[in-house]
Every structure is written in structure tokens, then in C-alpha cells.
């Protein structure tokens, strides 16, 4: 007999955290590496070179000389600071590359690995810039500035021009990945390298130690929302079913939250929002990678799925609680959490007089751990399958440092919650009434043990 604790552990272990990056090399017809650009000093003159291992240092120096110094985004401004980013950039109107990303194998290879989608997904790759990193060039750790809520990723294509160093290092959720383009492309005349990653993944370009590292960068967008499953054995089907099996076993246990409640998942990725404007529900179709797998598993089980930001009160301040303190077992103490439908930044509120839970009492959902007695009425039982991320609110550091000035969007950490009904009626009860039933308060309050 598996105990409830074991079932919870199995559910936790069933959440697969897939890599938020995908890299490789691909062969292209050699003429795809032909490249034309306008001279900076004299834009009516254009030059031509082939961006392969035979490109000469002189020709690459000339290309570099036609670049502008790359800036990066610090809050609302684009700034130039060579202690943060040392690279050349060329805007789209200044060059013509014979490389058409849609004629390569890059998108069909990288996108499914990254998105872990069960269905086909329309994705757009928008060419953003050409960059040249000469010897000593680098770009310190940053996240890519989101252009809009549909932008999920960035793609870097590296040409086989001779270079050493300039490794791209990506870090996320305790994992690190290094891509050494100079090494994998050495000597090639018809191979390019690519790294695609979710834009909220921290990344940096280490200093180039020799030669010229020439890249094209693309912004990746979701275009139309995905519809039904259309490719049977796509990469995430196993991940989704594994999680579904584990969650069903847990929900089938009548001792688990008998009145119904919520499952919570602290999401691994951050999402771009316009503060005060973006509705969190609009982000459900644009979840990334393993976050999308969680959403798919819960929806396929018929649970009501919603995105929330979570505020936590470190201390219990409810008078109601204090009144009955002596009647409660000591383990009833826990931080109070409030789920909200909008992203807020606690630091914008300054010093607040009340608790978060009382400030947002009307619009928020108050929750209590599934194995604890509710401290207040109208509190919903909740089990965090993946712990709540310790960041609530906006990611201040990355508002400050992006690859472009902020366009009014900021990254936020969010949680996905999935509502289930009382034992015996877990799925259909919630599926019938949909997302609104995230607020299970009436069921809970009737059983509020005081
Ligand atoms: O060149 C690379 O590998 C990454 C460049 C980058 O991070 C950027 O342009 O934002
Ligand atoms: Fe970047």
C-alpha cells in the first residue's frame, strides 16, 4: 500500500525538468554563408564576404569596422558600457545574409526540444541583429529583454569564422551549459552552429581569445495558440503521461484533501508581463518547456488550471487565529499565502500596515497546507507539488540588465495552480465549472475545524 506521503513524493518526482536550451550544428549549402553589407563610413558602398573558416582576418576586421558598438538595456535606456558588453552590432538595414533560417534544419530541430510540445506549434523566428565579437569581445550575464508576451526564446546562429573563446554559457535552475562554437565549427565551410534558449534563461558570452565570432540573433515568438494534439509521439508525451499517472494516483486517494483543493507548482521559468495590464490567464498558452508539460498534464486530467502570483505573510496576524490559538495544535502555524490573478511587485507597496492576506482579502484566494487545519474561514487546502519560487514580484535585477532597453515588460515568477474537487468527484466537479472553481472557499469553510 502506498501511503499519501509516498504518493506525494512520486508526484514530485514525476515532474520532468527538461533543458531550457537546445544546441547543435547543421550543414547548409556553402553559398548560404555569403554575406553583403554596407560600409559604415560610406553606406552607398557595399562589401561582400563569405562567413566561413576561410574568411580572412582583414575581411573580418573590415566587417567589424562597419559595425556600431553594441549597447545593452539598463532599465529604460540603451547604454554603452564596455565593462558589460564589448561587441559590434549591425542593424538589419545594413546587411543581407544569404542564410534563410527557414531553409535550415535549425527550427525543426531546436524548437521541439525546447518547447516539449505535444502538438504542432506555430513559431516565428524574427531576425534581430548581426553581432561581431572581436578578440576580447564578451557580453556579461543577462536575460534577453522580452519584446512582447508572445516572445519565448532567443536563437543565436554562429558562423564558422575562425575564433577561439567566446563560449556561450547558459544557466537556469541550478543547471549550467556551455557551448563552444569555435571548437565545434573549426575549419568548416558549410556548417553553422545554433543555440536556442528561453529568453529568461541567464546567459553570457565569455571573452573571445582569438579571431572573430560572428552571429545572427533571432527573437522567437509563439504565433497562434496550439490546438489539439497532432503529432502522436512528440518529445513530451512521455513526460505528460508520467505526471498524469502520478497525480491521478494522488487524487484517487480519498484521504488527500477530502473536500477538494489546489495543487501548486512553482514554475521554473519567468514570464513577461506589462505591470498592471497583463492578465495572467493570457500567459497559459505561452508557457515554456517543463512548465507547459505541467499545464498539459493537469488540463488533460480535467483539473481547472490557472496562473497565479503568490504573496506570503511570514507571520500569522489574524486575531481570529489568536483567539483560538489554545485550541489548535502547534503545527497549525505556517505562513499565510494569498493567490492573486495579477502580477504585483511587493516592493512597490513599500511598508504595508496590514498583512498581504488582509490587503488582498477580497481579490485573493487564501490557502492553507493540505495537511494543516485552516487558520481562517474561506481558506482553501493546497499542496505545493513544486515549491513556490522564493521570488515573488518582478525580477528587479533583470529589469536593470537586458540585451535592450525595457519595453515596458518585466519578467515575473508565477505559479500554476490546478483545482480539484472533493474525493470521489475530483475531475468532473472541477472540469464542469472550470477555472472559477480555483476558489473553493465555500467547501472549505463548512469544514473549518475550530
Ligand atoms: O552571441 C551569443 O551567443 C549571445 C548574444 C546575446 O546574448 C545577445 O545578443 O543578447
Ligand atoms: Fe542575450
Count of DSSP E strands? 25
User: What ranges have pLDDT less than 50 throughout 5 or more consecutive residues?
Assistant: 227-233, 430-450
Widest beta sheet: strand line-up = 1-16-12-19-10-8-4
What molecules are bound to this protein?
2-oxoglutaric acid, fe (ii) ion
Oligomer: single chain
* Main sheet summary: 7 strands, antiparallel
Radius of gyration based on Cα positions:
25 Å
- Beta-strand content estimate: 25-35%
Total DSSP helices:
11
Q: Which overall shape is indicated by the principal axes computed on the Cα atoms?
A: elongated
Residue-averaged pLDDT? 84
Residues in helices, as a percent range: 10-25%
Structural class call reads alpha+beta
Q: What this model shows, in words?
A:
The chain is of the alpha+beta class and 450 residues long. The chain has eleven helices and 25 strands. Helix 1 runs antiparallel to helix 5 and helix 5 packs across helix 6. The two termini are 32 Å apart. InterPro entries: Oxoglu/Fe-dep_dioxygenase_dom, Pro_4_hyd_alph_FE2OG_OXY. Keywords: Iron, Metal-binding, Oxidoreductase.
